[in-house]
């Protein structure tokens, strides 16, 4: 698939994916979502990719939401389909990606933009980041998982307030409430995300994939079972032999 709204750059196992519609502050239109869905699917099987970093083009915005102009004339049925397709084809795929996905939040992360960063496995923000769910100002509610993921990340009361008031969190506040893991200057955002990604690439990718699955199941009643089964599965994998042998031989593991 040819990408017209994504820039993809793969270096040393790290895929830097830039959502590239700066003229619309990288708002998520159908074409961009289709491309992102395709990329995430293909990346699962691509051995050259071990970690994915998502960011927005330009210095102002990660993603300023779903493309309002595209859905402004939709009726209820079309709106429901848009939310359902987006959730299944993009947001859930990002969350369940077996390759770690880091959101490098470089400015506005609003509505669907905040939702995309929340579907990612964790978020690093630049000091100019502004994050919020302004959907009620449009007569809507978050439709790409925001009502479900925000309470898990920052607590129900804070999520309720943020959604009802549509207020934006500053980067500093987002850090304080655990919405982002770190805040750095804009110029250091990608270098810092790459530094974290590089650390991840040194570890066992098969173990990391299982860790993602187990952590994602942590709010399910079978979460502990997922952990137990994954733990057992990993004992039969090459990486376990390499990891334990390297420890005993006092050297760094060389995971394939
Ligand atoms: N959709 C479409 N175009 C957008 C969007 C958007 N979400 N955000 C910005 N743009 C466009 C603007 O229209 C403008 O285009 P143009 O130059 O052609 O007029 C261009 O980007 C630059 O934007 P501004 O001139 O507005 O830039 P400012 O710096 O003045 O303001 C803001 C920046 C505050 C981010 C402002 O652009 C804004 O409020 N944007 C909308 C934010 C928003 O409401 N986002 C939520 C959208 S709804 C949503 O995400 C729902 C998700 C769930 C969907 C489920 C299925 C429907």
UniProtKB/TrEMBL annotation:
| Gene3D superfamilies given in the database record | 2-enoyl-CoA Hydratase, Chain A, domain 1 (3.90.226.10)
GO molecular function list: enoyl-CoA hydratase activity
Instruction: Give the EC class as a word.
Output: lyase
Assigned EC number: 4.2.1.17, 4.2.1.55
Keyword Nucleus attributed: no
What GO terms in the biological process aspect are recorded for it? fatty acid beta-oxidation
The record, for InterPro entries, names: ClpP/crotonase-like_dom_sf, Enoyl-CoA_hyd/isom_CS, Enoyl-CoA_hydra/iso
Q: Does the keyword Lyase apply?
A: yes
Question: What keyword terms does UniProt attach to this protein?
Answer: Lyase
Q: Name one Pfam family in it.
A: ECH_1
Q: Could you say which protein family the record assigns here?
A: Belongs to the enoyl-CoA hydratase/isomerase family.
| PANTHER family noted in UniProt | ENOYL-COA HYDRATASE, MITOCHONDRIAL, ENOYL-COA HYDRATASE-RELATED
Name assigned to this protein: Enoyl-CoA hydratase
Q: Which organism is it from?
A: Weeksella virosa (strain ATCC 43766 / DSM 16922 / JCM 21250 / CCUG 30538 / CDC 9751 / IAM 14551 / NBRC 16016 / NCTC 11634 / CL345/78)
């Amino acid at each position: 698939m040819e990408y017209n709204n994504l820039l993809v750059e793969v270096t040393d196992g790290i895929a830097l994916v830039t959502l590239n519609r700066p003229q619309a502050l990288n708002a998520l239109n159908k074409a961009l979502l289709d491309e992102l869905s395709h990329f995430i699917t293909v990346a699962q099987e691509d051995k050259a990719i071990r970690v994915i970093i998502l960011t927005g083009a330009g210095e102002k915005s990660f993603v300023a939401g779903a493309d309002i102009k595209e859905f402004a004339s939709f009726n209820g049925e079309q709106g429901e389909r848009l939310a359902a397709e987006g959730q299944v084809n993009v947001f859930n795929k990002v969350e369940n990606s077996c390759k770690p996905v880091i959101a490098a939040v470089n400015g506005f992360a609003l509505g669907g933009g905040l939702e995309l960063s929340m579907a990612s496995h964790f978020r690093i923000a630049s000091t100019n980041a502004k994050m919020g769910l302004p959907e009620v100002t449009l007569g809507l509610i978050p439709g790409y998982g925001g009502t479900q993921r925000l309470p898990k990340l920052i607590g129900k009361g804070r999520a309720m307030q943020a959604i009802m008031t549509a207020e934006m969190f500053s980067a500093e506040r987002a850090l304080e409430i655990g919405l982002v893991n770190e805040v750095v200057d804009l110029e250091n955002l990608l270098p810092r995300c790459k530094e974290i990604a590089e650390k991840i690439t040194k570890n066992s990718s098969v173990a990391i994939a299982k860790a993602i699955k187990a952590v994602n199941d942590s709010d399910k009643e079978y979460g502990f079972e997922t952990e137990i089964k994954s733990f057992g599965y990993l004992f039969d994998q090459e990486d376990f032999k390499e990891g334990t042998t390297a420890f005993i031989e006092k050297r760094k593991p060389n995971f394939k």
